[in-house]
Write a structure and sequence with these properties.
Number of domains: 1
Strand order of the largest sheet: 3-4-5-6
Strand content: 5-15%
Number of helices: 11
Order of helices and strands: HHHHHEEHEHHEEHHHE
Structural class: alpha+beta
Number of strands: 6
Radius of gyration: 21 Å
Length: 320
């Protein structure tokens, strides 16, 4: 489980879970099959903890699909918007997210809403035309779905104490992200440049390795592979959301079916924008730069690094 940040930034729930988890985990020998199973289990728990905002929002969307009464005074889309606001406020009040992280999440919200306004206007997808809390054809809860991606990104950075080797210069990544964002709009009028952009991603991010700590061990993974894995999980969540009628693609208007796998490419491109936005708040440091990192960055990024107590430290880098 993630360790609360220094200075008591963790909630009482986080501190309780952290202490209880380490009562058992610290007793596990740092080698053998049992140790590997513990690493795998902690990895899953940390991922679930990082996804808490998106998971709660998706649960509300699914609950509305199954149980929200027809003809209710409050429109479904308005209920989803108010629920999303409540989740976000709760995340901040309980200090599950810091105000610094909230800045990134708000930026995701703005960037996502801008895309939603354009995409709905050209018929890429549509929402139910009900509710008052909307901008044109776009209900305000839609921006929170992008904010959920931002929440995951900033939390996973902190929880896993992410470090990067051969990370590209940030101005280059900013140019690439801007080109990707522009292509989401321009491909409706100009030739689609996504394949050129994918080639640019391979060149720019291909050499980069992501280093992260689970419990005792450090691991590394090609950053591009992590983009693809997160995109896959977003695609799965998208299928749940469209089944719940949160929005629909034109091909789903006459009956729901799985979202096309082509959307994986779109989510993969969106991951580049996401990483670039987060990197402007959390500067990407190399694996051996902890001592040189500013105190503020160290404090927040180390918040996800569990202490091992009296157990034996295993500092072995593995490749996933």
């Amino acid at each position: 489980m993630p360790k609360p940040a220094a200075g008591g930034d963790g909630t009482s729930t986080e501190q309780f879970l952290h202490q209880r988890a380490h009562q058992y985990l610290d007793k596990v020998t740092p080698w053998g099959l049992r140790s590997r199973l513990v690493e795998f289990g902690v990895f899953g728990l940390k991922q679930a903890w990082a996804c808490v905002f998106g998971a709660l929002l998706l649960a509300v969307i699914l609950a509305v699909r199954l149980w929200y009464p027809d003809g209710a005074v409050l429109a479904r889309n308005d209920f989803l918007t108010l629920a999303a606001i409540a989740i976000q406020v709760l995340m901040v009040l309980t200090r599950l997210e810091t105000l610094r992280e909230l800045r990134v999440i708000v930026l995701f919200h703005v960037v996502g809403t801008g895309m939603e306004l354009f995409k709905t206007s050209v018929g890429s997808w549509s929402y139910e035309a009900d509710g008052l809390l909307r901008l044109g054809a776009v209900p305000l809860f839609s921006g929170f779905m992008y904010a959920a991606v931002g929440s995951y990104m900033v939390r996973v950075y902190r929880i896993f104490n992410l470090r990067f080797s051969r990370y590209p210069k940030r101005w280059i990544t900013a140019v690439l992200a801007s080109a990707i964002y522009l292509n989401f709009f321009s491909h409706h009028f100009l030739p689609d440049a996504r394949w050129i952009l994918l080639a640019a991603i391979a060149v720019i991010f291909g050499p980069c390795m992501m280093h992260f700590r689970v419990f005792r061990r450090h691991f590394r993974m090609p950053l591009v592979l992590s983009f693809l894995l997160v995109s896959l999980f977003i695609w799965i969540a998208e299928n749940i959301a469209t089944w719940s009628n949160a929005w629909l693609y034109p091909s789903q208007a006459n009956g729901w079916h799985l979202v096309s796998l082509d959307k994986l490419v779109s989510w993969f491109l969106l991951m580049i924008i996401s990483v670039v936005l987060v990197a402007w708040v959390y500067k990407p440091y190399p694996p051996d730069a902890d001592a040189a990192a500013p105190e503020e960055s160290k404090e927040e990024t180390n918040a996800g690094q569990p202490s091992v107590g009296g157990s034996v430290e295993v500092d072995r880098t593995q490749v996933l």
